[in-house]
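User: I'm new to structure prediction. If I give you an amino acid sequence, what do you actually give back? Let's try with this one:
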Amino acid sequence: MKRLSARASDRKPGQAAGPRLADVHDAIVSCERCPRLRAHCRRVAQERKRAYRLETYWGRPVPGFGDSAARLLLLGLAPAAHGANRTGRIFTGDGSGDFLMAALHRAGFASIPTSRRIDDGLRLTDAYLVPAVRCAPPDNRPAPEEVTRCLDHLDAELACLPRVRVVAALGKIAFDAWLQRLRRRGVTVSPRPAFAHGAIAALPAAEGETPFTLVGCYHPSRQNTSTGRLTAAMMDRVMDSVRRLLAAGPP
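Assistant: Good question. You get back a string of structure tokens that encode the predicted 3D arrangement of the chain. For your 251 residues, that looks like this:
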């Protein structure tokens, strides 16, 4: 399988990627901190789903993807077992990725409305995708300690994205992971914002960082989109809020 590299995945056409982000991606891909998750990813990659039995799975931790000059960070849960764990790019190769990319395309952040494979030509503008947990977890349920271990990767990647101002947390686990990240960096958030679709919370900044605005959004999982808990119109309203926040904030 073609390797997903920061050198190819996080730049605009004609824009060279900085070496720091490439180094962070290399560290993420080689991470072995969570034996349970690594064993699960390898097992899925070996057994494969019948529909993808002829494909070579990625089977490794998944780094972020998007525009390194992004002001919007979209924080997801984790790679899907037969999505990003197969393709090597977050929100790629499954229905969740297509649903999210269609919304990002309508909002002007994505070049195409689908996310099928790493060589599909998808480019993000002013947006960057990261999973809170970098390995596909069994039953899509990472353990709390696995979320905590992955926060170092989020810190490292965010340090290479100096323009981020708005964080859209896709689901409660991602929302809580962001708040946990702030606590680890010595930031007191009081009162603690509650997760809700469309919730907006202006948060204090950690030392050396600018303040971020946290936006809650239901995760675009098949369970949510097929039951109508999350519709395209609901997703568009969140994207409208994000664009208003970016327009009102510093460049």
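You can read the tokens as a compact description of the fold. Here is one thing that stands out. The radius of gyration is 17 Å.
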